[in-house]
TrEMBL record:
<protein>
    <recommendedName>
        <fullName>SnoaL-like domain-containing protein</fullName>
    </recommendedName>
</protein>
<dbReference type="InterPro" id="IPR032710">
    <property type="entry name" value="NTF2-like_dom_sf"/>
</dbReference>
<dbReference type="InterPro" id="IPR037401">
    <property type="entry name" value="SnoaL-like"/>
</dbReference>
<feature type="domain" description="SnoaL-like">
    <location>
        <begin position="5"/>
        <end position="123"/>
    </location>
</feature>
<dbReference type="Pfam" id="PF13577">
    <property type="entry name" value="SnoaL_4"/>
</dbReference>
Length: 173
């Protein structure tokens, strides 16, 4: 393995992280930015192009709050292509329905490098398990008591401000 391979692997991980951030922040541009436009996504109940997947998932956003946690990625590079398997946990909260669930599985991806960018060309989501439970009134009340900038999947979520500015530099000393 050489430095170029390590850089390519990190760029693939950054693309995966941008996808997860986009899904959780309900940012269609970030989600679609992880895919090549001519790509394909087989996502359980939906299968189609990235644009079709984006339309599908954005219809779900008003009903759901999500958080995706990515685990290890097994990455095999082969020139401008890479086979990548990434473990995930996805916590989903139904806003009006009083239930939430966790899904665990793997993103089995074929990435392609075009120019300097690595993006998903083909994705199959493998679902390994799912657990659902009812949300208690106490849980709802505690979450509702938080200000908007402390709540995920809102446009006033603090992460938008954080990443809109440069990191703060502390004086030496």
């Amino acid at each position: 393995m050489n430095i170029d391979s390590l850089i390519d692997m990190e760029l693939i991980r950054q693309s995966l992280a941008s996808y997860a951030r986009g899904i959780d922040r309900q940012d269609l541009e970030l989600v679609l930015g992880a895919y090549w436009p001519d790509g394909w996504d087989a996502h359980g109940t939906h299968e189609g192009t990235p644009a079709e997947f984006g339309a599908f998932v954005s219809r779900q956003w008003p009903m759901l709050r999500m958080q995706h946690l990515l685990g290890q990625s097994h990455i095999e590079l082969d020139g401008k292509f890479a086979n990548v398997e990434t473990y995930f946990f996805a916590h989903q909260h139904l806003v009006e329905g009083g239930s939430e669930w966790v899904i665990a599985g793997r993103y089995d991806d074929r990435f392609e490098k075009r120019g300097e960018d690595w993006k998903v060309l083909h994705r199959v989501v493998v679902f390994d398990w799912r657990k659902e439970w009812a949300l208690s009134e106490v849980d709802v009340e505690k979450l509702d008591a938080l200000p908007n900038h402390n709540r995920g999947a809102t446009h006033s979520d603090y992460s938008w401000d954080l990443f809109a500015s440069k990191p703060l530099k502390r004086p030496a000393g």
